[in-house]
Structures are given as C-alpha cells and as structure tokens.
Specification:
heterodimer, A: mainly beta, 4-stranded antiparallel sheet, 11 strands, globular, B: mainly beta, 6-stranded mixed sheet
C-alpha cells in the first residue's frame, strides 16, 4: 500500500502571500490530520478532517484553514503568511481518527517564509 | 489539559550501549501512548504503541511499558546502533475523549557514535 504523500515537499513564499499544501492519505483511510513542526514550539496539532468535515481544531489563528475532498485527500491553506509560519507541515492519516488507532505520517512540506 | 514531558536531549551514546528515554504524561481517562521516530529530512514513523495500562509495545529491539501508576511510558533498547540516531517523540491520544489527536512531547535527539 502506498504511504501518505504530501506535495509540494518544499516551498518558499514571501510575507503576505498565501499557500496551499496537499495531502493524499493511505488508501481506505478517512481521517486526515495536520500538524505544524517548528524548533521552538515542537509538534502542534492544527486540525483533523473526517468525511469532508472538520472534526477537531487546534489553537491556531483563522489564517490556517483546510478542507477534505470526497476521496479523502486534504488540503490546508495559510493566508497572509507571516515569518513565524515557516515550519515543517506534516499530514497524517488513519482509518477513522479515533483513539488507539495509529496515525501514519507523510514526509512533510517544508515551508520557508521570507 | 493533556500533556507529555520527555527528557531533554541530546542523548549521546556509544554503539551497543543501553538506551532509556524517559516520558511521562498527564491525562484524564485512559489515553493511548505512542513512540514515534523522525530521521533527518523525513516525517514521523511509528516505533511502537500501547493502548492500555501494563501493555508493552515493542519493535526493532525497542520497548516501552504503559505504567498508569507512574503515568510513564519510558523507551528502552538494550543495544543501540549508529542507525538508531534520530529524534524520538513520545505522544498520547484520547484520554477523556475518543479523539485520535496526538499530543507530543518536545522530542529527544539520540546520537549514537561508533
């Protein structure tokens, strides 16, 4: 089975721009979660989607948004980029997103905001 | 709220040394506990997990036991190899809710020298 894929792998943007990241989950997985990884804050949960609905949300400003399509693929969008948004963005998928299930991570998208 | 605390790194060991990375958690209810590993430039890979008290997770020579009485999930390996050099994250999900949202510790960098 193919793993979680994320595109693009690297991105360079300037402040004020917006960016869209894409994630394709493992086939059959319906839950997709997004995490931000930075040296200062570590790994932080952004949001989780299941059956095209946002089911959980972390403590991030409204500039961070996402969506999920009927094939479970997910995108996240960051508008009005700030320098502090530079990070590795990780997507994870699982069968139904409940406790006890393993979440499988993609390789991440590294975003640099200049 | 729920939280995970890991021992500070970096941890530097010689090949074949014994490894312990401490992890303690705070959570209501009965969380599931995980260890993930991140190699340079990659996403997170599940190393092992335990979903109830006294469960022992094991994989590739690594072990961790879910200790509810001490709220701990320490990672151990009897004989480390250079290839084990990576960043290790302890994480929990669930607790009082059934969500699969992962809460991570700050990560511990392990360097193994030949």
């Amino acid at each position: 089975k193919a793993g979680v894929t994320q595109t693009p792998r690297y991105l360079i943007k300037t402040r004020g721009q917006q960016v869209t990241l894409s994630c394709s989950p493992i086939s059959g997985h319906r839950s997709v979660s997004w995490y931000q990884q930075t040296p200062g804050q570590g790994l932080q949960f952004l949001f989780e989607y299941f059956s095209e609905t946002q089911r959980n949300k972390g403590n991030f400003p409204g500039r961070f948004s996402g969506r999920q399509f009927s094939n479970s693929r997910s995108e996240m969008n960051v508008s009005t980029l700030e320098l502090g948004d530079s990070a590795l963005y990780l997507c994870a998928s699982s069968l139904s997103g409940v406790n006890q299930e393993t979440q499988y991570f993609g390789p991440g998208t590294r975003l640099l905001v200049l | 709220g729920n939280s995970v605390t890991q021992m500070e790194g970096p941890v530097t060991l010689s090949e074949e040394a014994f490894l312990t990375i401490n992890c303690t958690y705070t959570a209501t209810g009965y969380p599931s506990l995980f260890w993930y590993v991140q190699y340079p430039g990659e996403g997170l890979q599940l190393l092992l997990k335990a979903t109830k008290a006294d469960d022992k997770g094991s994989n590739k020579g690594f072990e961790a036991t879910y200790r509810k009485e001490t709220t701990s999930f320490h990672l151990e390996k009897g004989s480390v190899q250079v290839s084990d050099s990576a960043v290790y994250f302890c994480a929990l999900s669930g607790g009082s809710s059934n969500t699969g949202k992962l809460i991570f510790g700050q990560g511990t960098t392990l360097q193994v020298k030949p």
